[in-house]
Design goal:
Helix content: 40-55%
Number of helices: 14
Shape: elongated
CATH architecture of the largest domain: 3-Layer(aba) Sandwich
Radius of gyration: 22 Å
CATH superfamily of the largest domain: Glycogen Phosphorylase B
Number of domains: 2
Order of helices and strands: EHEHEHEHEHEEHEHEHEHEHEHEHHH
CATH class of the largest domain: Alpha Beta
């Protein structure tokens, strides 16, 4: 029986790829046994347990760079965790006896992957972003393979001989039961007119909410017929409705506007969209490529190492998106840009075609190839 340890945490962007990789492994090894290593209070604990996978807790925390009393206390805690992480990692590895250990980013995967490599167990990491995180850069020195979402990430990893561009696995809803664009629009109750989807993620993004509220008002004031789906997120509760009210926008008078806190049928909404306004998380961008949709990208300015900007620039440089930094995003800019794209459908079509061209269609096969290389008798670890 194949035994695999997965580890990654901090955000869903690290956890979901690990869960997707487990599904890829199950396709060829249905009896494979998995153990997920993560922090006991992190997002990964809930997501992994919901997925029905065994979970082994390990306390790990990142070090804070800005000097302050609170950060000093946090760093003391992080140092204490780090001091004990080696022993905990060895305990987990000796107990579970994995054939392979896979890390998908976040501080938590560092100790377990590093210890596995030290013990001679085969190790692989997957980097989601165009600008690799600190954990990936450190682990690349000792792991057997580094799987990358985009070619650009190779520029920042000295161990290029270990790198394989696999792409990022997307959730199953984007691969199974795909709907043609016109059918997706009808499923949402829209006509065949232009459809725009805007979102700042599950938490929402204040600047995106503000500018989209003004964009909806512009449609109404100028008689512009657009089907528009907007997710304002948790942080937009109450405030987004107030923005619309101050602009005189009454949602019950506009059946072509779909406004929600959270979109639970995102695959259908993305398939219906002719233009997507979004942050630049690696998962979101891969899904935009998967549905082949042009986009306006607003990278979050408060993420580690500004990685969303680097992610978005991959699409902009390929002519697949229009990127604007949050500090430069205004309602006028957004209205002018959307207006130009509405009046110039050939440009919007070009953005969409180039987005589709970026999508790596055989990501599962590429990941499976990397994993399979370690599953020969001589490649598996013997305890």
């Amino acid at each position: 029986m194949l035994k695999v340890i997965l580890s990654g945490g901090g955000t869903a962007g690290h956890v979901n790829p690990a869960l997707a990789i487990s599904e890829i492994i199950k396709d060829s090894h249905p009896d494979a046994k998995f153990l997920y290593v993560g922090t006991p209070n992190g997002l990964e604990c809930d997501l992994v347990k919901k997925a029905g996978m065994d979970f082994a807790p390990m306390n790990v925390a990142g070090f804070q760079r800005k000097p302050s009393f609170n950060n000093l206390k946090r760093n003391i805690t992080a140092a204490n965790y780090l001091l004990h992480s080696g022993k905990r990692s060895r305990e987990i590895l000796n107990s579970f006896k994995p054939d392979l250990v896979i890390g998908t980013g976040g501080y938590v995967c560092g100790p377990i992957v590093r210890m596995a490599a030290k013990m001679g167990i085969k190790t692989v990491i997957h980097e989601q972003n165009a600008f690799p995180g600190v954990t990936t850069k450190l682990l690349a020195k000792s792991v057997d393979k580094v799987m990358l979402t985009v070619e650009k990430a190779k520029d920042y990893i000295p161990q290029k001989e270990k790198c394989v561009v696999t792409g990022l696995p997307v959730r199953s809803g984007f691969l199974k039961g795909r709907l043609p664009k016109a059918e997706a629009k009808r499923a949402l109750g829209f006509d065949d007119g232009l459809c725009i989807l805007s979102t700042g993620g599950s938490l929402g993004a204040g600047r995106i909410n503000e500018t989209v509220a003004d964009l909806l008002a512009w449609y109404c004031e100028n008689g512009v017929k657009v089907n528009h789906i907007h997710s304002y997120g948790k942080n937009g509760r109450g405030s987004f409705a107030a923005m619309l009210a101050s602009n005189g926008v009454k949602l019950d008078e506009h059946p072509n506007f779909m406004v929600k806190e959270y979109i639970d049928n995102m695959p259908v909404c993305m398939e219906a969209a002719d233009l997507i306004i979004s942050r630049c998380g690696a998962g979101a961008l891969t899904e935009i490529e998967a549905v082949g949709c042009g986009s306006i990208l607003v990278p979050s300015p408060i993420v580690a190492e500004n990685h969303q900007y680097h992610n978005g620039m991959v699409l902009q440089n390929a002519g697949a998106a229009i990127l604007i930094e949050q500090k430069d995003l205004t309602s006028k800019w957004l209205i002018d840009t959307v207006s130009e794209l509405i009046s110039n459908p050939s440009r919007l079509e070009s953005l969409s075609e180039r987005a589709a061209a970026l999508y790596i269609t055989d990501t599962p096969a590429r990941i499976a190839d990397v994993i399979t290389a370690f599953l020969s008798p001589e490649g598996r670890h013997g305890f």
